[in-house]
Structures are given as structure tokens and as C-alpha cells.
């Protein structure tokens, strides 16, 4: 990571002002903004009129507003999946442990 110094800032500004690709991109973006199909002012007026005419629109509200916390955070899916996964891993652990004891002589004698 390079540090911000006077020299690096000067070099970056010099590149920005003298590199032709930045000018071409800026002109292209300016042209696109001038020729966009719907002007921002027209769009604001149309949406304002739409809202004024129809007031509240439940059809446009997010369905997530109707869900409870458990459904919204997918706990009703994640918790059972996690429990099944934990049980499966525990079962695999027990099976491998039993196989290792069976194969490598798991009985140990206690010294008294």
C-alpha cells in the first residue's frame, strides 16, 4: 500500500488532467446523461402525481414486512439444518471411533 505524499498526489492529478482517456470517458458520460430517455425532473413529477393519486400501495410493499423475526432471518430453516448436520457429524464421529477401537484393539487394561 503506498502512502499519500505530495509527489504521488501531484503525479495523480497530472495524469488525470493530461491523460486523454479520462477526457473521452467524461465526454461520453456527459453525452449519456444529456440524452437519457427520461429527464430526472419529469420522473420526479410523474412519481409525485402517481403517489398523490393512489396514496398507499400495499402491492408495492415488501413481503418481508409481513414476516416474523424467525421467518425473516430464516431461523426456521437454518436451525433444523444445523441440528441435523450436528447429529450426522456426531454419528460419523462415533462410527469412526468404534472402527478405530475395533481395528486397533481398543481395550486397555488398568494398572492397579
Automatic annotation (TrEMBL):
Its EC number is 2.4.1.17. It comes from the Eukaryota. GO terms for molecular function: glucuronosyltransferase activity. Coiled coil: none annotated. Keywords: Glycosyltransferase, Membrane, Transferase, Transmembrane, Transmembrane helix. InterPro entries: UDP-glycosyltransferase, UDP_glucos_trans. It catalyses: glucuronate acceptor + UDP-alpha-D-glucuronate = acceptor beta-D-glucuronoside + UDP + H(+). Belongs to the UDP-glycosyltransferase family. PANTHER family: EG:EG0003.4 PROTEIN-RELATED, FI06409P-RELATED. This is glucuronosyltransferase. It comes from Plectus sambesii.
Amino acid at each position: 500500500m503506498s502512502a499519500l505524499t505530495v509527489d504521488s498526489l501531484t503525479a495523480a492529478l497530472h495524469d488525470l488532467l493530461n491523460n486523454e482517456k479520462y477526457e473521452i470517458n467524461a465526454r461520453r458520460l456527459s453525452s449519456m446523461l444529456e440524452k437519457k430517455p427520461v429527464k430526472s425532473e419529469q420522473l420526479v413529477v410523474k412519481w409525485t402525481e402517481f403517489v398523490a393519486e393512489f396514496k398507499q400501495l400495499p402491492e408495492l410493499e415488501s413481503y418481508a414486512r409481513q414476516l416474523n423475526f424467525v421467518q425473516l432471518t430464516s431461523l426456521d430453516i437454518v436451525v433444523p439444518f444445523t441440528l441435523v448436520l450436528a447429529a450426522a457429524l456426531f454419528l460419523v464421529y462415533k462410527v469412526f471411533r468404534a472402527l478405530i477401537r475395533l481395528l486397533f484393539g481398543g481395550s486397555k487394561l488398568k494398572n492397579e
